[in-house]
Amino acid sequence: MNKKEVLELKNRLKKTGCTFTKMCGCYVNASKEIVVNFNETFLNLEEDEFYKYLEIAKKALSGTVGNNLLEVNFPMEEEEQGGKQQFLMGLRESKLKNEGLLETFYQLIIDNYDYAGNYLILVYHDAYDVMTKTSDNNKLDESEEVYEYILCAICPVTLTKPGLGYLEDVNKIGPRNRDWVVGAPDTGFIFPAFTDRSTDIHSAMFYTKNALEPHKELIEFVLGCSPKATATEQKQTFHNIIKNVINDSEKTTQVIGEIQENLSLIVEEQEATAPESEEPVILTSNSVQEILVECGVSEDLVEKIQASYEENFAEEPPVVEHLIDKKILAENEKNKATKVLVEQIQVLQERLQESVKTNAEEFDIVLKVKEEKVSQIKTQLIDGKKCIVIPVEEDEQTNINGKSDLSFLDENEEYV
């Protein structure tokens, strides 16, 4: 599933476009016990409930594809009788009317979901009449197929914060009652996937709110698929490879900044040469080598980084766009601008010093004193010669042409 296909499903989740037939769920406490089950005809919900549940479903389709939304594929054994894919097929085909299947599904999540606290499991059933689209994305008034799917969302349920409030019954301000409130979904999935605007029973789209710590146990044990790294995890792994090999904080920051700049240029070039292409650019091991050499990394470090990269990303090399870190890019631009400014200041200082030196050479006598000393300097005729007289206090230090010992002045009778 790509961004357009996700948005197509998400944009339907409105009062006028929503076609959810059923919504089921259960509330689970911190002891992993089901407190309550419910089964609703979605379109019969009260308006407030309707919009709240609709918002939860939309959240399970939010975020970035490849980071918050991961397409996972079922292995062959899970598509056989008794496999997880076959179970999900049965759940979908039951249109959420089979209580036994629902109970099994809830228990599967409860047994595997690594979460300490109360939460709500929600399952929606939908049948989307997919309209034919022309090459310019205009819809035709005819159906290609009916995309039937289930959407699952798991939401944390937490206590509101303690505080004071108005107690209407006793007409006073006092401690308000704390309520258990359903939050935005922490994780979820859609089955089957909606690939090329069509049903794809060999894949599911997994959602995670936290891309740094996704609940991979659900991918593995509820969906039966191999865990997949998010873009955030891939980015972190890639940067850790660089840090561990270079082992120099300042050099690492510089190299990572330059790598980010190169990755950004690759994406920009792809967008310029093939703006309509939906094929992602993969960062191969050879590409990593080329970028590192361009960044001035030594040959032995390039080999170590390349070997570690191949080891960490052997199964699935990351998409270039997924590795781009906008914060690092911005910081790198800032550092480059600062470096240019420092270089300009150094050039100006050198020019200024050269100018002072040149000016000094044009005079026989050059004085450099503290600002507060200037008012004490006077000119005086001594033995018919114009002299500059500078009073020197006992605690003041003097230096003439690099000499701080002025005893040589006493040897000259003219200064006695």
UniProtKB/TrEMBL annotation:
Q: What is this protein called?
A: DUF4317 domain-containing protein
Q: Which organism is it from?
A: Candidatus Galacturonatibacter soehngenii
InterPro entries linked:
DUF4317
